[in-house]
What we know:
- The complex is a heterodimer.
- By secondary structure, chain A is mainly β.
- Chain A has strands at residues 4-6, 10-13, 19-25, 31-38, 42-49, 56-57, 64-70, 73-78, 87-94, 105-106, 110-114.
- Chain A has one domain (4-98): Immunoglobulins (Immunoglobulin-like), CATH 2.60.40.
- Chain A has no helices and 11 strands.
- Chain A starts with a strand and ends with a strand.
- By secondary structure, chain B is an all-beta fold.
- Chain B is 0% helix and 52% strand.
- Chain B has strands spanning 3-5, 10-14, 19-21, 24-26, 32-39, 46-52, 60-61, 64-69, 74-79, 88-96, 104-105, 109-114.
- Chain B is globular and about 45 Å long.
- The interface between A and B is medium-sized, with 23 and 22 residues.
Amino acid sequence: xxxVTQSSRYLVKRTGEKVFLExxxxxxxxxxxxxxxxxxxxxxxxxxxxxVKMKEKGDIPEGYSVSREKKERxxxxxxxxxxxxxxxxxxxSVGAGSRATYEQYFGPGTRxxxx
Amino acid sequence: xxxxxxSQPEMSVQEAETVTLSCTYDTSENNYYLFWYKQPPSRxxxxxxxxxxxxxxxxxxxxxxxxxxxAAKSFSLKISDSQLGDTAMYFCAFVSYDxxxxxxxxxxxxLMVKP
Lengths: 115, 115
């Protein structure tokens, strides 16, 4: 079974802190994604990566950055956390090329509260 | 750009009854996939059912089936014999073959199954 794990289920940070959210997948997937989930807005794509050291902006990249140094690991960074970044953050992965089914596999999510 | 709309923010159904969740989408693409994902309370998002646009036959997975109307750009999910474990957020999602695995999600429908 595909497994996508996230470093924390719940996180509380103060305004201005630098926040790291980590995601690890064990299926050798090329593509990894970070989403933000807010009530009524569904999931919105923050950043995605299609290969090591490669990244592309999604729909709402402002205030975020990402890092992908190893294929299995994709990190989301909030350089200076703000209260409007309080949200649920979901990581997902999917294979590419001949293995692509377009089905994304999700981690359990990190509920981040910025006070 | 593609958009996905779920017009029912919340729904409820009695256990053992049937419920239908609505989803419409807008795209100029011809080759794409549609998905329904389920997110139980405090649990991981999982795929419920997938439909490829070129297939005319509606997808079914046990108690879950879809009504795919390509011309109308409609993709509803029917849950038969509803069970308490079906209580969850349900998200409709779209991806085109050319989108690089990038999903577009609807805003979600919160389904409550009542005993």
